[in-house]
Amino acid sequence: MTMHTDDNPCALSALVARRLIDLKQLSPVELLDACIARIEAVNPRLNAFVATCFDRARDEAKVAEAQMMRGATLAPLHGLPIGIKDLSHTGGLVTTYGSTLYADHIPAKDELVVARVRAAGAIVLGKTNTPEFGAGGNTVNRVYGATVNPFNTDLTCGGSSGGSAVALAADMVPLCTGSDTGGSLRTPSSFCGTSTIRTTPGTVPSDRRAIGLTTYNVQGPMARDMGDVALLLSCMAGVDVSDPLSFPVDTAGMATVADVDLAGLRVAFSEDLGFAPVANIIRETFKERVNLMRDAFGHGEWRDPPLANGDRVFWLLRGQHYLASHLPRLLKHGDKLGPNVRTNVEAALAMKPEEFAWAAVEQTRMYRECQHYFADIDILICPTASVPPFPVDQLFCEEIDGVTLDHYIQWANIVSGITLIGHPVAQIPCGYGPTGTPFGIQVIGARRHDDARVLAIASALERLFATSDDLARPRPDIAALTAW
């Protein structure tokens, strides 16, 4: 059945595709087939999808089409294909966490967030690649290999939700899931030109976090624009007793982003959050972009947040989490763990109790000072990545402007600093970067739990940027990727 007349349904936004399904102008089967065809054409070059379930997806798409044709009430994500990050349990579909320890692991059931998107009508096409246990900003592991940047396949796509970012950028699917600790949604989204939000912890509940009472890690949506991000988030969010930070969310209101008048906003700009190492080429690019956008706001000023100890605090808190999650694996399977996980746990073992205590106190102090900082502004805007994408065969960024970094995630301080305070933060594309790959900015909300406001502001900025050749979302050359 062919109901759609555009060139390729896989390039449609989720909102447009869902509306066409409602109008019976697009079949879920047609949409699925287009996505599978795109995956088969470009994934051999990009390696974004690492495990697939096409036969099951086709069966589900046929059911979705039949429901559509008989006029049934359709769920919010009805018939929309989705990629699931390979850190999430998917019932009946291999879940490796990017680790050889779990190369043949097939969970018995979906975890909470996957069950929610399925219940909302989404059709899971497969798993998207991640570094081992999500450790690192380059999506490479010893199970599936490296996922590469669709704009330059010699470069990294970022991590750890790199497979999801690449799948979206190359129009393999309209929606993907991901997770974010120290930038794992935001960094690959920036490197690949997609949109995402790291929500207030608890907005999207998790039934699998080892430490539940923390701002440290969240799961969340990724898509090609903030409207689609909001749609997916509305189906992922909502209270669940398994997560101690979970709270009631107006998911219906979240599904459609509100209109925002940018001219009424008070905005702060920071090129490095006051402490993060950032390459000069990124600083200059960010300043250029601020000059292009600042007249859209009612008030704009350069002002750094009070996060001066963010690097040390995040490294220590990360150590606590790696001890909780991975120490048993190190003791039992140390030789089978990759270097990022192994060195992080080893570094954590050398940390002292008084250092952990200091980090917890300092995180609280920074949070409280940031509430004063945000008292008279609506959003903070800063770069998403401290460097352009680096070579894919380089495990992590080791130096910035000739200065050697202390550890393998220090280059990501520009994103991990925001993790510490738990405020919602969106990442949106902002034109091309200085090396021909996408450039992204973080839009950081002034208040926790104000995720809908951040979605709305980021969406308004996307609409503004779309009117400018210098700021619009970049698109990869699909024909070149297909010809490989």
List keywords for this structure.
eleven-stranded mixed beta sheet; 15% strand; disordered N terminus; two-stranded antiparallel sheet; 15 helices; alpha+beta; 17 strands; 37% helix
Question: How would you describe this protein?
Answer:
The protein has 484 residues and is of the alpha+beta class. 37% of the residues lie in helices and 15% in strands. The chain has 15 helices and 17 strands. The protein has helices at residues 14-22, 28-46, 54-69, 112-119, 162-169, 186-192, 226-236, 251-254, 280-293, 310-333, 339-349, 353-373, 413-421, 451-465, 478-482; strands at residues 49-52, 81-85, 123-128, 140-141, 145-146, 148-149, 152-156, 175-180, 195-198, 218-223, 266-269, 299-302, 379-383, 399-400, 403-404, 425-432, 438-445. It has an eleven-stranded mixed beta sheet, sandwiched between helices. Mean pLDDT is 96; it is low at 1-6.
**Which class do the helix and strand fractions yield?**
alpha+beta
What is the mean predicted local confidence, pLDDT? 96
Roughly how many Å apart are the termini? 31 Å
Shape: globular
Q: List the uncertain runs.
A: 1-6
Radius of gyration: 21 Å
Q: In which range does the helix fraction lie?
A: 25-40%
Spatial arrangement of strands, main beta sheet:
1-3-2-8-10-9-16-17-13-11-12
What percent of residues are in strands? 15-25%
